[in-house]
Write a structure and sequence with these properties.
Keywords: DNA-binding, Phosphoprotein, Transcription, Transcription regulation
Strand order of the largest sheet: 2-1-3-4-5
GO molecular function: DNA binding
Structural class: alpha/beta
Radius of gyration: 18 Å
CATH superfamily of the largest domain: Response regulator
CATH class of the largest domain: Alpha Beta
CATH architecture of the largest domain: 3-Layer(aba) Sandwich
Distance between the termini: 51 Å
Protein name: Putative transcriptional regulatory protein NarL
Organism: mine drainage metagenome
Amino acid sequence: MVGRRPINVVMAEKNPLLQTSLQRLFVGDGRFNVVGMAGDGERFLAALTRLPCDVAVIGWELPVIDGRGILQSLRHQGRAPRIVVYTGSSNADVPRLALALGAAAFCSKNEPPARLLDTVVAVAEGRMIFPFIDVTRLVSDPLGNLTPRERELLVSLSGGMTNQQMAEKAGISLNTVKFHLKNLYEKLGVGNRAQAVAFYLRSQESL
């Protein structure tokens, strides 16, 4: 436990009904203090800048910025909360990706609700909780690490589209495009759009 005080928890969950259920689950347990709930990844990241948080519980398939994008954004922040990925995704790679991107734990929505509470307590105590993961698969090719949105933007970049054009095409804000591009550049190990396009074109030539 974090000292003797309740664990401050911020959550990101897209389903309104599950938001309510999670609030009740945590509020009904004196070990926790729910300080925030967001319906998408962008609002979640904004909430972290103003709310005290020991452990965050996030979904993987979130609107605007998904779980992978959240972890990428927080991985180099020294004061970021420890993250529990809580999802019903059937993708067996999600726990591996969450671990590789710096999450502290993975908990499936198929588990009893009490398992999530126990996982958050364990994470607050400094432990990591994951199902069995083949660590030999933690390193993969950079393009394989891109989210669907990042791959979409990379293709648009290679077609010469501007940030504004990409935002209009994808139906997202200009700031969100910039956020995705920043993560995209980091994953590819490049510093700008020209280098990203060159990387992409080389990868297509090798196919």
